[in-house]
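User: Sequence recovery, please. Input:
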Protein backbone atom coordinates (compact mmCIF):
# COMPACT_ATOMS: atom_id res chain seq x y z
CA UNK A 1 0.00 0.00 0.00
CA UNK A 2 1.39 3.44 -0.95
CA UNK A 3 1.75 6.41 1.39
CA UNK A 4 -1.43 8.11 0.11
CA UNK A 5 -3.52 4.97 0.53
CA UNK A 6 -2.12 4.36 4.02
CA UNK A 7 -2.85 7.93 5.13
CA UNK A 8 -6.33 7.79 3.63
CA UNK A 9 -7.09 4.48 5.33
CA UNK A 10 -5.98 5.89 8.69
CA UNK A 11 -8.12 9.00 8.27
CA UNK A 12 -11.17 6.99 7.15
CA UNK A 13 -10.76 4.70 10.17
CA UNK A 14 -10.96 7.81 12.37
CA UNK A 15 -14.11 8.99 10.59
CA UNK A 16 -12.43 11.91 8.81
CA UNK A 17 -14.10 12.63 5.45
CA UNK A 18 -11.78 12.45 2.44
CA UNK A 19 -12.24 15.12 -0.21
CA UNK A 20 -11.54 14.98 -3.92
CA UNK A 21 -10.25 17.50 -6.42
CA UNK A 22 -9.23 17.75 -10.04
CA UNK A 23 -6.36 19.95 -11.15
CA UNK A 24 -8.46 21.12 -14.12
CA UNK A 25 -10.94 23.04 -11.95
CA UNK A 26 -11.09 25.16 -8.81
CA UNK A 27 -13.47 22.86 -6.93
CA UNK A 28 -12.94 20.52 -4.01
CA UNK A 29 -15.74 18.16 -2.99
CA UNK A 30 -16.51 15.72 -0.24
CA UNK A 31 -19.07 12.96 -0.68
CA UNK A 32 -19.98 11.47 2.68
CA UNK A 33 -22.82 9.22 3.75
CA UNK A 34 -25.91 11.40 3.27
CA UNK A 35 -24.02 14.57 2.31
CA UNK A 36 -22.17 16.15 -0.61
CA UNK A 37 -20.34 19.46 -0.23
CA UNK A 38 -18.55 21.36 -3.01
CA UNK A 39 -16.28 24.35 -2.43
CA UNK A 40 -14.97 26.84 -4.96
CA UNK A 41 -11.86 28.96 -4.40
CA UNK A 42 -13.65 31.41 -2.09
CA UNK A 43 -16.89 29.83 -0.90
CA UNK A 44 -19.10 26.78 -0.62
CA UNK A 45 -21.00 26.41 -3.89
CA UNK A 46 -23.21 23.43 -3.04
CA UNK A 47 -24.28 21.49 0.01
CA UNK A 48 -26.63 18.53 -0.26
CA UNK A 49 -27.65 17.17 3.11
CA UNK A 50 -30.74 15.57 4.56
CA UNK A 51 -33.55 16.37 2.15
CA UNK A 52 -32.23 19.74 0.92
CA UNK A 53 -29.69 20.97 -1.59
CA UNK A 54 -28.39 24.51 -1.05
CA UNK A 55 -26.58 26.54 -3.69
CA UNK A 56 -24.09 29.39 -3.30
CA UNK A 57 -26.76 32.00 -4.07
CA UNK A 58 -28.87 30.70 -1.17
CA UNK A 59 -31.42 28.91 -3.34
CA UNK A 60 -32.57 25.62 -1.89
CA UNK A 61 -34.05 22.62 -3.66
CA UNK A 62 -35.84 19.77 -1.97
CA UNK A 63 -34.51 16.35 -2.86
CA UNK A 64 -38.00 15.40 -4.07
CA UNK A 65 -37.88 18.17 -6.71
CA UNK A 66 -34.91 16.54 -8.46
CA UNK A 67 -35.50 14.30 -11.47
CA UNK A 68 -31.93 13.83 -12.72
CA UNK A 69 -28.42 15.24 -12.26
CA UNK A 70 -26.11 15.63 -15.22
CA UNK A 71 -22.65 16.79 -16.22
CA UNK A 72 -22.73 19.19 -19.16
CA UNK A 73 -20.63 21.39 -21.43
CA UNK A 74 -21.79 24.16 -23.73
CA UNK A 75 -21.57 23.63 -27.48
CA UNK A 76 -18.47 25.86 -27.64
CA UNK A 77 -16.90 23.89 -24.70
CA UNK A 78 -16.33 27.06 -22.67
CA UNK A 79 -18.95 26.53 -19.96
CA UNK A 80 -19.08 23.22 -18.14
CA UNK A 81 -20.45 21.90 -14.90
CA UNK A 82 -23.31 20.13 -13.17
CA UNK A 83 -27.02 20.74 -13.61
CA UNK A 84 -30.21 19.36 -12.13
CA UNK A 85 -33.34 18.66 -14.09
CA UNK A 86 -36.32 19.24 -11.83
CA UNK A 87 -39.61 17.36 -11.97
CA UNK A 88 -41.19 20.65 -13.12
CA UNK A 89 -38.97 20.58 -16.23
CA UNK A 90 -36.81 23.49 -15.04
CA UNK A 91 -33.04 23.05 -15.29
CA UNK A 92 -30.84 24.50 -12.56
CA UNK A 93 -27.07 24.93 -12.70
CA UNK A 94 -25.55 23.53 -9.51
CA UNK A 95 -21.81 23.93 -10.20
CA UNK A 96 -20.39 25.97 -13.09
CA UNK A 97 -16.92 26.62 -14.48
CA UNK A 98 -15.75 28.65 -17.45
CA UNK A 99 -12.63 27.56 -19.33
CA UNK A 100 -10.23 30.27 -20.50
CA UNK A 101 -8.31 27.59 -22.44
CA UNK A 102 -11.38 26.61 -24.46
CA UNK A 103 -12.21 30.29 -25.07
CA UNK A 104 -8.71 31.29 -26.20
CA UNK A 105 -7.50 28.24 -28.12
CA UNK A 106 -9.07 27.67 -31.55
CA UNK A 107 -7.61 24.15 -31.60
CA UNK A 108 -9.27 23.15 -28.30
CA UNK A 109 -11.09 19.93 -29.17
CA UNK A 110 -13.51 17.44 -27.69
CA UNK A 111 -10.51 15.40 -26.52
CA UNK A 112 -9.32 18.29 -24.32
CA UNK A 113 -12.88 18.85 -23.13
CA UNK A 114 -13.24 15.24 -22.00
CA UNK A 115 -9.86 15.36 -20.26
CA UNK A 116 -10.66 18.66 -18.54
CA UNK A 117 -14.13 17.79 -17.23
CA UNK A 118 -13.73 14.60 -15.21
CA UNK A 119 -14.56 16.65 -12.12
CA UNK A 120 -18.04 17.49 -13.48
CA UNK A 121 -18.91 13.83 -13.81
CA UNK A 122 -17.55 13.00 -10.37
CA UNK A 123 -19.56 15.76 -8.68
CA UNK A 124 -22.71 14.98 -10.69
CA UNK A 125 -22.48 11.27 -9.79
CA UNK A 126 -22.07 12.11 -6.09
CA UNK A 127 -25.07 14.47 -6.06
CA UNK A 128 -27.20 11.99 -8.03
CA UNK A 129 -26.31 9.22 -5.58
CA UNK A 130 -27.21 11.48 -2.64
CA UNK A 131 -30.57 12.35 -4.24
CA UNK A 132 -31.30 8.82 -5.46
CA UNK A 133 -31.90 10.04 -9.02
CA UNK A 134 -30.31 9.12 -12.34
CA UNK A 135 -26.93 10.53 -13.35
CA UNK A 136 -26.35 11.49 -16.97
CA UNK A 137 -23.11 12.48 -18.66
CA UNK A 138 -24.04 14.94 -21.41
CA UNK A 139 -20.46 16.03 -22.11
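Assistant: Recovered sequence (139 residues):
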Amino acid sequence: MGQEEAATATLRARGVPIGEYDSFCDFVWVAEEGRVTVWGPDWRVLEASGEMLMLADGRTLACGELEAIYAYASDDYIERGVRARLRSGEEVTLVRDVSAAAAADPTYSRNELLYDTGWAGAIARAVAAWAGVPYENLI
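The longest strand covers residues 66-73.
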